[in-house]
Amino acid sequence: MRKILPAALASATLxxxxxxxxTPVPAQAGDQDAARNxxxxxxxxxxxxxxLGGQLWFNINNMERHGHIAVFYQGNPDPGxxxxxxxxxxPDHDRTEYTSHRDVVQFYVGRQAWEVTYRGKRPLxxxxxEDYLRRRDHSIETAVKLWMKDPNTxxxxxxxxxxxxxxxxxxxxxxxxxxxxxxxxxxxxxLPLSRSFQWRDPVYHDKNTxxxxxxxxxxxxxxxxxxxxxxxxxxxxxxxxFIDRVSFNQNLAADFWDPDxxxxxxxx
Length: 268
Hints:
single chain; alpha+beta; outer membrane lipoprotein receptor (LolB), chain A; 14-stranded antiparallel β-sheet; globular
């Protein structure tokens, strides 16, 4: 038989329930907070683009970097460095020549990857090719020129963080495919300090974090350019690039991106 509470007790019980029950947050308020956060993220990214050169940066045809690479193993540097000459043309043409003789050349054209030596042309090892293409797919250039233009990309402003004694604003972009790129920008210069993303190892199925840190900026042909780039995997350094020279918008030969043409020249 159901007991009926006296009116006073029922009223007191209702008052207690009202105190402990969470106050519902209107959906509209949550949407407004998300919109403000996205606008703050976009403003930070827009300031970064302007610092890099604005519309002229968007119109860069190609870039060459010449310098030396230091390799790390388990966080410790190997002795010596390797000279390299690296060329990039948006969106998917990359060529790197190694040694002072420039007789080892790697091509990444579209989704194809080749290595050319005096022995001729051969496909690059799958792991090497996938690592390079994955980093190109998650570059700052890709984030700005492709992801930011997609209305379905989510932008998250994540506050201020420190990297290498620099205070930066952090923004994460999440693509419609649920991939993400995190960029940290200097609060004063608005130039990129780092870029990171995560990917799952196809064999061990654990998540890895790929990070690039940028330092020692020089303005070349009007474009601020980092002359030190450090690559890290799960927080440990794996490569460090020391840039000696950078140039933009060169007149490249018609067959510059053809690995077969490079193979013919190296054999001579």
